[in-house]
Amino acid sequence: AARDCPRIDVDAARDALSSFVSAEGQQVWVEEGGFIASNTQVPDDAYEIQVMANLPDLADEVTVVPDLDDALGNPFQQEFWSVLKGLWATPDTPTEDIVGPLDDAHEETLSN
Prior knowledge:
Layout: H1 10-21, H2 23-31, H3 50-58, H4 68-72, H5 76-89, H6 95-111
Helix pairs in contact: 5-6
């Protein structure tokens, strides 16, 4: 028997993505408080904060690197987020209870 699967409308998905990354779609993104538009045709006046409009122009002056947790991967990444969520839940957690598990996960990640 054939499995019941939802039909995927690839054309509709492509149209939606094209809309999201268009200048108009990205303008909505920045006007609603998004960070930096991925489309360079978004006008500077769309940004609520002027410095945000200037950031794309400064991008050539810096080297973009991945976040540490993304660069290292697991098990460090998993432990990082676990400790961070724990810190949000219990802000008075002693520093050594945060740093110790992160150091262990860091060493384990580097040894893999």
